[in-house]
Write a structure and sequence with these properties.
By secondary structure, the chain is mainly alpha-helical. Helix content is 50%, strand content 8%. The strands form two sheets. The protein has a three-stranded mixed β-sheet with strand order 1-3-2, with helices on one face. Strand 2 and strand 3 form a beta hairpin. The N and C termini lie far apart (59 Å).
Length: 248
Amino acid sequence: MTIAPTPTPTLTAPNHTPDDLPGLAELVCALRHCAQLPGLLIRITPDLDGNAEAFASRCDRTPRVGLGADLLQDPDSSSLYGVLAHEIAHHALDHDHPRMFWRNPVWLAKAALLGGLVLRLPLPALAVLACVVLAAALVEARRERLQEYDADAHAVRLLDAVGLPGRRLMAAALADLIDAPPGYRLIGWAFDGHPSARARRRTLATGRPARRLRWALMWQSIPTPAVAPGFSCTACGLTGSDSMGASA
């Protein structure tokens, strides 16, 4: 009796790899050129789940975007495109630039309070320093929330510049966010650097971030996106005239 050899199992790529998302590599390349970034590193981070983050290394300052693995499991890539554009917009607006200790008002206020405790200042003086720490934390949270609004608006401009419906894609990305509980909407938002999903959707619909963003771009001297549809990148070896049209 002849025993047939056992066939070797074929390993197949999971359905959440970037290869299953048509035009994703071309979109990242186009957005990078549109944002005028010298480079961009995309990293898949399972710990982020369905979230994403923009950050940069202190060593080489290369812009990086971390994507949660759950973002790549959705067969409808509209929300993923919006998330990518939002994180790249953070880099374009220089939101990832770390501030030194002496330029961070929250850390300065905490250092002053700690110094007051060490020096055993009177209780009224310590109370004043504690109020300064609280005020600095509120101001810093407000600054970070404005950055989120500005990144949403700038993401629309980046997507529009590569020939995609920017507002529709950003609306799809924001639609997937979970609304905050009632307690957060009452007082918790004031201490959080991320606005609620409802506030971001409402602000994007009214266009207020775009007006504030134009002022911010003039103040920071950041060029307006000017990449036309049908781009090509010899450095990346990509041509997006066909794939970008298919992705839209």
